[in-house]
Input
Amino acid sequence: MKFEIVTIFPDFFSGPLDYGIVRRAREAAFIEIKIHDLRAFTSDRHKTVDDRPFGGGEGMVLKPEPLFECVESLKLAPREQRLAGEAKETVVLLSPQGRMFTQAVAEEMAALERIVLICGRYEGVDERVAESLADQEISIGDYVLSGGELGAAVMIDTITRLVPGTLGNAASARQESFSGASFSNPQKPGVDGPDSTCGSGGLLDYPHYTRPAEFRGMAVPEVLIGGNHEQIRKWRRGKALEKTLRNRPDLLDRQPLSEEDKKLLAGIGKKKIGLE
Ligand code: SAM
Output
């Protein structure tokens, strides 16, 4: 997987992409990250990347010429082929007006070979970039950042975790919060396949504990110490359902629930999770 970042702040990325799983994935060549300084694609003495908006209004807008020059220099497959899914490449414009970046979108993108991430700044980017250069606009959340760089780093981190080989234990990604129902056992929706302890099946993750077993009067739940794997699986599933119901009830509507899930949910009770 190759990520190509287009930015006016190339130094922004020394740090966020140099640690942990992303660093190891880069070192092991599971992923490659190239950073393109937008100013290198300007043709004037001042390396101008922005200008005032037509029609008046606040702030500055990123100009189209350097962005087109930069992305075209990457020699991607033609845009029509990319949009038709005939090329494993995409050009993303980071924008609060884009479709939401979710785990499902990350899973979709992890199957690609090359992702170009255009980072906007100021009041935004000349609309012709969204219309004719980028294949899609992506937002990382319903809030406004100062620039697309943090969004690009969030996307790279999330997608990298899904590239085969990057996580030591592939089951880690399968059982995390939001992981698609497609990862669940198709025979029993909501119940995970054999090599994962629980599997989020699109829910929030279950709670995790480590040593010490007792800390400041707070004990680790008995069931986790008992060693009964079936009881542990059931407890974790119940806790994942409970947390999802409390913090993200919208996720429950989107997932197929097994008979076991429905029973567990009925047993959780709204009072216990503070909804009543
Ligand atoms: N005027 C724009 C608006 O109200 O929609 C906001 C522009 S913002 C200050 C500058 C740049 O930050 C955007 O062009 C985009 O690249 C990036 N950005 C801001 N919020 C973002 C978000 N939620 N997701 C992705 N990128 C974002």
Notes: The radius of gyration is 22 Å.
